[in-house]
Amino acid sequence: MGKYTEDELEKELETQEYKYGFVTDIETEKAPIGLSEDIIRLISSKKNEPEWLLEYRLKAYSAWLKMEEPTWAHVNYPKVDFQDIYYYAAPKPKKQLDSLDEVDSELLEMYEKLGISIDEQKKLSNVAVDIVMDSVSVKTTFQDTLAKLGIIFGSFSEAVQKHPDLVKKYMGTIVPYTDNYYAALNAAVFTDGSFCYIPKGVRCPMELSTYFRINEAQTGQFERTLVVADKGSYCSYLEGCTAPQRDENQLHAAVVELIAMDDAEIKYSTVQNWYPGDKNGKGGIYNFVTKRGLCEKNAKISWTQVETGSAITWKYPSCILKGDNSVGEFYSVAVTNNYQQADTGTKMLHLGKNTKSTIISKGVSAGHSQNSYRGLVKISKNATNARNFSQCDSLLMGNKCGAHTFPYIEVDNKSAKVEHEATTSKIGEDQIFYCNQRGIDTESAIKLIVNGYAKDVLNKLPMEFAVEAQKLLAISLEGSVG
Amino acid sequence: MVEAMENIASKKAQFLSNFLAKDTDVNSSLAKQEALKALENLEFPTTRDEYWKYTRVGKITSAKYSQIPSFKVSDISNYCIEGLETYRVVFVNGFFSEELSDISTNQGVSILPIAKARKENTDEIEQYFGKLSKHKTQFFSALNTVFNTNGVFVKIAKNSILEKPIHIINITNAESAAFNPRNLFVVEENAEVQIINSYETSSGSSFTNATTEIYVKEGAKVDSYILQNESDTSKQINEIDVLQESNTTYSATTITLNGGLVRNNHNIEVRGQGSETNLFGLYLTSGNQHIDNHTIVDHIEPNCESNEVYIGVMDDKSTAVFNGKVFVRSEAQKTNAYQQNKNMLLTDDASAYSKPELEIYADDVKCSHGSTTGQVDEEAIFYLRTRGVSEANARKMMICAFAHEILDNIKIEVLREMLEIQIDERFVLVESL
Amino acid sequence: MLRIKNLHASVDGNEILKGLNLEVKAGEVHAIMGPNGSGKSTLASVIAGKPDYEVSGDVTLNGKDLLDLAPEERAGEGVFLAFQYPVEIPGVSNVNFLKTAVNDIRAYKGLPPMAAKDFLKMLKEKQALVELDKKLTSRSVNEGFSGGEKKRNEIFQMAMLNPKLAILDETDSGLDIDALRIVANGVNKLKSADNATIIITHYQRLLDYIVPDYVHVLYDGKIIKSGTKELALELEEKGYDWLTKGVESSELKVKS
Fold first, then answer.
1. Among B358, B364, B369, the residue to mutate for chain A (most A Cβ within 10 A)
2. Is residue A284 domain-resident?
3. Most buried residue, A25, A169, A184, B395, by CB count within 10 Å?
4. What's the CA gap between A344 and C58, in Å, rounded?
5. Hey, how many other C-beta atoms are within 10 angstroms of the C-beta on B99?
6. Nearest chain C Cα to A5, which residue?
7. Distances in Å between the alpha carbon of A383 and those of A89, A105, A297, B321, C250?
8. Preferred mutation among A385, A424, A450, A480 to probe B, highest tally of B CBs within 10 A
9. In this complex, is the C-beta atom of A423 within 8 Å of any C-beta atom belonging to chain B?
10. Is residue B110 left, alpha or beta, with left meaning phi > 0 and alpha meaning psi from -120 to 50?
11. Distance (Å) of CA B249 to CA A425, B279, B332, B338, B364
12. Distance (Å, whole) CA C79 – CA C64
């Protein structure tokens, strides 16, 4: 019968490649390869950092040296050689940039290719973008507009120079450098990232967005993002990530800290599309990320992530629900194909009274990939009337991949109500046939069904990202029908 | 550093010295040799070990034990199930009590103390002994495999259907006594058996470290009940390793009514098509008790089904842990696996830790799990009260109904009735309105 | 238009269709009736290309061999099956689903995608035709629909895809009298000299609304009697026994 054959698939696979796999030829300034105290001092001095920050880095480094790489995640990869990585690579600025027109034309072209033309961004009135390439932030748009509202948005290095008090006050309070191996490494060698402060009672009128790009070979990207939403404020923040296609594995170890003070709300969305490696599992980004937010009274933090990239993903965006009545949300779609491995989920720590959390996780595994949900819901003794609902579904395509669910539920208060549900199944054959009968071929039917399956999560993304995310899902499932 | 290591080593040596006295037939068994080697290398499990994340074994490993000689129990009617006729195998402080047991069987059935079976039929025991137990990787399994003194060997021959259940009763009455019961059940092709395994304390506190291996051969059916009702200061580690061949049914219900520290490791390997696995558990904790149920159902072959429901009610300062793991290997297509854990906390000092896990490598499967933790439904309480039921009784009714869900799976009627009464009595609340 | 010759179909080794013959010409309405388990739904599924069956024989649509085609290619050729149990697809909106289907079928025929404006116009027209609640079109495909809404949605899809051969598999089951009338009206309005309809049903009730040109009785994987709409009335009155008994005894004779 005229079924979609594997041969046809193979063909399609060859034509469908990671579309962001190009390398931009840009002059780069790099620190010598490897990691040592000297390298850290070099990074710090390149960035003209105050003494306290250098000290912080060195403390983190000595803590890191004593730590061991975690092995509990359901992922398998050769050990990272931390001495074989460049910890600092920056596009060489010709001079201080004053306007967009002065941004390197190669850079502009690159962002055009990535579909985030800065020119266009200039015209769009609802998204402010900070762009981080390899180790440093290259450009932030809309800073002036935001400044009128008292909103500080820009690169982390810039914030260190211009708002050292704010940075010093909040940095490392949510994710201390002692937190874990990669957080310690990041604290020692982070080069840039985004910083955002929303003053009391201000509702940020536009989406704040950071675009992360790894370009140089053999570099690690260690960015650090800090978002502080003061009392009663609101902001929606998006991040996107891509990297060139290389045979080697590259390391990305980021730290994101969110602080939502009383009555504040932060919506943090990620579309993670780091290079996943080729169809034989060669190359790809190791994505080891620590993301955590703190909610004070009546505050709300909502994490939404669409994870389609990276060879290895190790990531658990979490909420510390410290204030009474605070709310934490986690919405995730993680798609793995070929030889990708993802171990991702969330932690909801209920400390305050009447705290509420919701977890919706949708995993899709295809090819030879392994996709795990790992999550912790902890209701502490004083968290009276805490509520959690978790739904973790997995979809499998083919019997060479794996879908795993590892929830940890810890309840120390009798008034808590915690519900966890999970299902694992293959994509519905009857659904595919129904689509076929209406004239839709199997490959399109799968994309349609998977997008429908992920709808609950995709709906949480800001419009601009939702469409992009749907396309991404479709692309990452290319050739997943066996 | 070195000092710390020496310290650990000496603690282990000290702990093991509690068991050195009884060791009669080490040489015969390959498993024993493996376990001896493992004991040299393995340390006490700690909470850094994922498998022991929520359970500390310090209470077990730091205690001093003494070997207690047999004592006489004149009346065991308290430990029998009233109205149920069974074969009976009684162990008192780990020693087989011939006069309290009733193991005269018909053809096709052997029920023997394992020590005796080993002497009489070394080759047959050796064929099965230690082939399923986790003595190479688990400290307590290794401990049992090396130092086990006695236990039960049951063999049901092909096509035999046992007309009455086998009831194994373990009674302890000693202070600081430690036992390593070792059981081996071989249920041959198309045979059927019901086995009840009770653990009771008459007085004192003890440490029981049991290991049971169960072979369920093609077409066989095993219906197993584990009843744990030890004293508040007793400690128990209970490993059960099951191998299911094709078209078999293995059902196990674990009821933990009492015990200071209880850790159950129930491992099922489903190595045959068309098989069914049912695991049910009920744990009621109070005081400072700590009850931990770990289960692993490993689906290796296609077309199998597993159901798992564990329910717990935690009172006072007690803690309960459930960790259920279902593996579906890539060959195990068309597996249906279901797993559910429900916990109810009666106080803010009680804790429930739930970890239902799925690890799935085949696509044509239907697997699901759920976990809920909450308290009595207040609306239901209100409803009952509007119908004239006192609040205390309403609560009792709701808690009992919650627990009874597990009892409904018990196929031996008198056992179910007995447990229903025990549980209902337990939740008669003292405070009156 | 549709020609079925000596069609055999089995599932897991059980033969369900045992040499079925049927010819349907353009402009005709055929009703296929028969007791439970006679193979009615299997026939519908086999024509649509459901993968679970092992099939042999000939099924052609306007001379094109259907059995060689994938289900979506058959849909492209103009086969439409209104499912007895329409499938729910969570998260996929009806509109998105139909847009994909319409354009994939157009691509199969070598036509460019339909302009969004035209598509919306057609959507509204057809919606009115089957009196489908507007809210339902923006909801996920069949998810949370009542039995009647699901059936109406099937006819709505049929209107959107404008098939040459529509097969209605027990479309009347679970419909109240008003819904039945609406569904039947829809089917009647879609009828033309170029298309054909096969109605699979238990009861003659639907045939009061959609008048068939021919009625066939399917029993034990074969058509054992064909006639005009009067046959349906006769079946309603007498049941199937008088027909099937004959079959069994004749088979017995053959065997002995």
1. B358
2. yes
3. A184
4. 52
5. 8
6. C70
7. 46, 54, 13, 20, 78
8. A424
9. yes
10. beta
11. 24, 11, 17, 16, 22
12. 12
- CB-nearest partner of A396 from B349, B352, B363: B363
- How much is the ipTM here? 0.86
Residues recorded for chain A:
482
Q: Which of A162, A210, A184 is nearest to A65 (CA)?
A: A184
Chains B and A touch (3+ CB pairs under 8 A): yes
Torsion, Cα of B279, B282, B288, B289 (10° steps): -40
Which residue type, as a one-letter code, is found at position A28? T
Contact: C101, A451; criterion CB under 8 Å = no
Between CA A398 and CA A400, with CA A399 as vertex, the angle to 5 degrees is: 100
Judge contact between C70 and A441, C-beta under 8 A.
yes
Contact (CB<8Å) C72/A431 = no
Residue B359 near residue B369, CB atoms below 8 Å: no
Q: Are the beta carbons of A440 and C100 separated by less than 8 Å? A: yes
- The residues, ordered by sequence, that sit 6+ positions from C36 with a Cβ below 8 Å of its Cβ are C202
Instruction: Flag whether residue A391 sits within 8 Å of chain C, measured between CB atoms.
Output: no
Nearest to A215 by CA among A27, A32, A23, A33: A23
CB-based contact (8 Å) between A428 and chain C?
A: yes
The verdict on residue A267 lying in a domain is: yes
Domain that holds residue A285: 6-29+70-176+192-476
Query: In sequence order, what are the residues at sequence separation of 6 or more whose Cβ sits closer than 8 angstroms to the Cβ of residue B425?
Result: none
Q: For residue A335, what are the contacts with CB-CB under 8 A and spacing of at least 6?
A: A307, A308, A363, A364, A365, A366, A371, A450, A473, A476, A477
The fold of the C2-87+163-255 domain, in CATH, is: Rossmann fold (3.40.50)
User: What residues contact residue A80 under an 8 Å CB cut-off, 6+ apart?
Assistant: A69, A249, A251, A286
What is d(CA A333, CA A152) in angstroms, rounded to the nearest whole number? 30
The domain total for chain A is 1
In this complex, whether B and C touch, counting 3 or more CB pairs under 8 angstroms, is no
| Token pair 């959609």 in the structure block, residue | C210
Inter-chain CB proximity A401 and B361 less than 8 Å: yes
Could you read off the pLDDT tens digit of each residue along chain B, which spans 433 residues? 556 666 777 888 889 888 865 545 555 588 988 999 999 999 999 998 999 999 999 999 988 887 666 667 778 888 999 899 999 999 988 889 988 999 887 788 999 999 899 888 888 899 999 999 999 999 999 999 998 888 999 999 999 999 999 999 999 888 888 889 999 999 999 999 999 999 998 888 899 999 999 999 999 999 999 999 999 999 999 999 999 999 999 999 999 999 999 999 999 999 999 999 999 999 999 999 999 999 999 999 999 999 999 999 999 999 999 999 999 999 999 999 999 999 999 998 999 999 999 999 999 999 999 999 988 877 777 767 777 677 777 788 788 888 888 998 999 999 999 998 888 888 764 333 3
> Could you give the residue ranges of the DSSP H alpha helices within chain C?
40-48, 71-77, 94-108, 116-129, 134-138, 147-161, 177-190, 205-209, 229-238, 241-255
The pTM is what? 0.83
Residue B20 φ then ψ, to 5°: -65, -25
Rounded to a whole number of angstroms, the distance between the first and last alpha carbons of chain B is: 60
- Chains contacting chain C through 3 or more C-beta pairs under 8 A: A
Q: Do β-strands A136-140 and B290-299 pair in parallel, antiparallel, or remain unpaired?
A: unpaired
Neighbours of chain B (3+ CB pairs under 8 A): A
In a domain, residue A63? The reply is no
Is A409–B353 a contact, with Cβ atoms under 8 angstroms apart?
yes
The 8-class DSSP code of residue A223 comes to B
Chain B residue with Cα closest to A383: B348
d(CA A390, CA A224): 29
Q: Which residues pair with C217 in a beta bridge?
A: C33, C225
